[in-house]
From TrEMBL:
The keyword Manganese does not apply. This is Acetate--CoA ligase. Residues 15-65 form the Acetyl-coenzyme A synthetase N-terminal domain. PROSITE patterns: AMP_BINDING (PS00455). The lineage of its organism: Archaea, Nitrososphaerota, Nitrososphaeria, Nitrosopumilales, Nitrosopumilaceae.
Length: 639
């Protein structure tokens, strides 16, 4: 029996769930009316599995809904309370954001960006990042934001795939007091991409950069731009952005989101889950380079005209108390972060948060990975002082917005630490077995979504076939997210981690296939396998196993460094393995499948007898033999 916490915010609107259960299409139709449309839709949902079009015939603009609509009542209200890592701060009102976005939209137009084009954005966490995104949205160009931790090779692949002719970057960004040379990374990334016409450079750190004929400074362009740029009236399914994310294949996939459905989903979930009020100060710690930042830093809070804190740097820099200092300084009322961050804060000890005034907090949230019940309880007690409900929000880059979460803005339900609780209204989620049949209560199975929802991806950029196979081929007409889950006796959903070869390291999604293809492109490596093992803070860390090519006898410690560097330059520092093992061969079943559980057992320092599941279907004695060989070969090869 799990512990139950009865805590809510006093809201209880049963009617909404009833309506949603009765007819999810007309339910979402009503929710969409909360947004401002230029022209109404003729059809709420056009569902040609697996492609969904929401609010067909309606025209809308994301920038209009996040800025223009607030100008009459909120132009002096703070939109962003920005805190630089070095202690600088900026306060941008909705009025100032409106001007900056229109000016920057005109800059983009002057550089030839048109409706339907793609623009790549590689910026640190500064207000110019949402400004650039909303400027793209204003003129109907799709932004593709790349997390500032990704390497030149990753950027090159994404710029080429999206065919972005304009790139927006900064001279540098601050991270742990050091300057990350973003412009240099872009120079390297696009050195062979002749189709890139313009690079706009924001000066953040004033470090030395080289400027070529393609490069222009943000300030110079924006100073001379007109501050009036009406928002384009766009079809509801007009592409708003592409966000690349890792999957089970070698290359990241471009998840394509539309406008009207996506915004409807965000508007609704922000209200139901966060109970947002005009007086709130919202703070989501996610980097905008990830989907959480797109949805719950940029679009959802601005749709509601909310005030939010945006922080540039590392959460524990220069001191472990940094986060709580920020919460106190800005009187944050709603705080949304990750289990990895919470595990780190918890390790620093209670004295640190206890020495700050966090009494303004009224609601806490987590996202991105399963949260351990102990950490949930720590969050509830030490940060929330037992008066703030916690929302554990499950969703994905592909889903656009949260799909499983308790919703204190809508209803009060008992909370169980570690469970995401219930699906949001209007979404049909269940847990099934391998054949698609419902599993009994308390039994592990696969999470599936049985009807389309407004925030769902339109497709994978340029690859409808892959979209069909990745998400819609395991079960007929059901979306398959790739997560294990179970439902308990109260129908609460418990997320049990990934069912595929996707890792979650500190909440960041990394595909093992991507890592493996990077490692085998090293001239000395014949074969490789990567997997995740549990980590106290990051949830999971990567370990890798490699087989050298015949005749290669290089020093493995040098090779290990080379491989780590290669991963850093090809993918990014977040994908660096904790340890690389050199082996004579990879443990495989007779059908050639890598026995990843053996790799995990090595990484966890377990005996094979401790590993109970036989998901690879091999006989126990055979597994033991392969395991012994593997251990022996690690010893032999790591001299
Ligand atoms: C995992 C992040 C447990 C899950 C918004 C999912 C979670 C993947 C939770 C998507 C949660 C996300 N509890 N697991 N509350 N939220 N996940 O695309 O495995 O970066 O499939 O989106 O994160 O990761 P993504």
């Amino acid at each position: 029996m799990s512990e139950i916490f009865h805590i809510g915010l006093g809201n209880n609107d049963d009617a909404l769930r009833k309506k949603a259960d009765a007819d999810f299409v007309s339910f979402w139709d009503e929710q969409a009316k909360n947004l401002s449309w230029f022209s109404p839709w003729e059809k709420t949902l056009d569902w040609r599995p697996p492609f969904a079009k929401w609010f067909v015939g309606g025209t809308i603009n994301a920038s209009y809904n996040t800025l223009d609509i607030h100008q009459a009542a909120k132009s002096d209200k703070s939109a962003i309370l920005w805190e630089g890592e070095n202690g600088e701060s900026r306060n941008l009102t909705y009025g100032q954001m409106f001007t900056q976005v229109q000016k920057f939209a005109n800059v983009l137009k002057s550089l030839g960006v048109k409706k339907g084009d793609r623009v790549t954005i590689y910026l640190p966490m500064v207000p110019e990042l949402p400004i650039a995104m909303l400027a793209c949205a204003r003129i109907g160009a799709a932004h593709t934001v790349i997390f500032s931790g990704f390497s030149a090779t990753s950027i090159k692949d994404r710029v080429a795939d999206s065919n972005s002719k304009v790139i927006i970057t900064a001279d540098g960004g601050y991270r742990r007091g050091k300057i990350v040379p973003l412009k240099d990374v872009i120079d390297e990334a696009i050195s062979e991409l002749d189709f890139v016409e313009h690079v706009i450079v924001l000066e953040r750190t004033k470090n030395k950069i080289s400027m070529s004929s393609k490069d222009q400074l943000w300030t110079e362009l924006i100073d001379s731009a007109s501050s009036s740029c009406p928002a384009e009236e766009l079809p509801s399914d007009h592409p708003l952005y592409i966000l690349y994310t890792s999957g089970t294949t070698g290359k990241p996939k471009g998840v394509l989101h539309g406008t009207g459905g996506y915004l409807t989903h965000l508007y609704s979930t922000f209200k139901w889950a966060f109970d947002i009020k005009d007086s709130d100060v919202f703070f989501c710690t996610a980097d905008i380079g990830w989907v959480t930042g797109h949805s719950y830093v940029v679009y959802a809070p601005f749709l509601h005209g909310a005030t939010q804190v945006m922080y540039e740097g590392a959460p524990d820099f220069p001191e472990p108390s940094r986060m709580w200092e920020i919460l106190q300084k800005y009187n944050v009322t709603i705080f949304y972060t990750t289990p990895t961050a919470l595990r780190m804060f918890m390790k620093f000890g209670d004295d640190i948060p206890n020495s700050f005034d966090l009494s303004q907090l009224r609601l806490l949230g987590t996202v991105g990975e399963p949260i351990n019940p102990e950490v949930w309880k720590w969050y509830f007690k030490t940060i929330g002082k037992e008066k703030c409900p916690i929302i554990d929000t499950w969703w994905q880059t592909e889903t656009g917005g949260m799909l499983i979460s308790s919703l204190p803005g809508l209803e009060t339900i008992p909370l169980k630490p570690g469970s995401g609780t219930l699906p949001i209204p209007g979404v049909n989620i269940t847990v099934v077995d391998e054949n698609g049949g419902d599993v009994p209560a308390n039994t592990k199975g696969y999470l599936v979504i049985k009807n389309p929802w407004p925030g769902m991806l339109l497709t994978l950029w340029g690859d409808d076939e892959k979209y069909k196979t990745v998400y819609w081929s395991k079960y007929e007409n059901c979306y398959y997210p790739g997560d294990y889950a179970l439902k308990d006796d109260d129908d609460y959903i418990w997320l049990l981690g990934r069912a595929d070869d996707v890792l979650k390291v500190a909440g960041h999604r990394i595909g093992t296939a991507e890592l493996e293809s990077c490692m085998v492109s090293h001239p000395s490596i014949a074969e490789s396998a990567a997997c995740g093992i549990p980590d106290e803070v990051k949830g999971e860390v990567i370990i890798a196993f490699v087989v050298l090519k015949q005749g290669i006898s290089n020093d493995t410690s040098i090779l290990e460094k080379e491989l780590s560097n290669k991963i850093r330059t090809d993918i990014g520092a977040i994908a660096t393995p904790k340890q690389i093992y050199f082996v004579s061969k990879l443990p495989k079943t007779r059908s050639g499948k890598i026995m990843r559980r053996l790799l995990k057992a090595i990484g966890n320092n377990e005996k094979i007898g401790d590993v109970s599941t036989l998901e690879d279907g091999a006989a126990v004695t055979e597994v033991q033999q392969v395991f012994d060989e593997l251990q022996k070969s690690i010893k032999e090869n790591s001299r």
